[in-house]
Write a structure and sequence with these properties.
Blueprint lengths: L1 H24 L4 E10 L3 E8 L12 E7 L6 E11 L1 E10 L17 E3 L12 H4 E4 L3 E2 L3 E2 L2
Parallel strand pairs: 1-8, 1-9
Antiparallel strand pairs: 1-4, 2-3, 2-5, 5-6, 5-7
Length: 149
């Protein structure tokens, strides 16, 4: 009798767990975002997937990747992907940390290290707004090449 109760409780707990998972994922589709960055130098490539909220703060994003590039004798395409992205408006910001200090360095009026974004049109001078490089995710998506220069 005692073993039977344990088995029933175990089955009930499993059903609660599975039902909770089903309710959580029902109605919320997630997608994969793929792209590549074109680089011409070695360093740590930082890639940030941002939404409008996280785009307001440097060195942060909804998701982020750091890819170590040991050598780059010529132009190279570095593939990346983000998974489990809900529907929404996003952008990609990236930079190549050539001196290994973990941040994008600036000189007087511009960046000292190569950087790029998922531009809607041509790269702009000045401070870009989220609208300049944002895109909509409503299915799996492949982005155009991001030049990190």
């Amino acid at each position: 009798m005692k073993n039977q109760r344990r088995k029933i409780m175990f089955v009930i707990l499993i059903l609660i767990f599975l039902t909770g998972k089903a309710v959580k994922s029902y109605g919320q589709e997630n997608f994969t975002l793929k792209g590549n960055c074109e680089i011409t130098r070695a360093g740590n490539l930082y890639i940030f997937l941002v939404d409008e909220q996280t785009s307001k703060k440097a060195m942060t994003g909804v998701q982020e990747l750091i890819i170590k590039i040991d050598s780059c004798p010529k132009t190279e395409l570095i593939e990346f992907s983000f998974r489990n992205i809900p529907k929404g408006e996003y952008g990609i910001r990236c930079f190549l940390d050539t001196n290994g200090n973990g941040k994008l360095d600036f000189k007087l009026f511009s960046a000292r290290e190569p950087w790029g974004m998922s531009w809607k049109n041509k790269r702009k001078s000045g401070i870009p707004s989220f609208d300049d490089y944002s895109f909509t995710v409503k299915s799996d998506k492949v982005l155009k090449t991001i030049k990190v220069e």
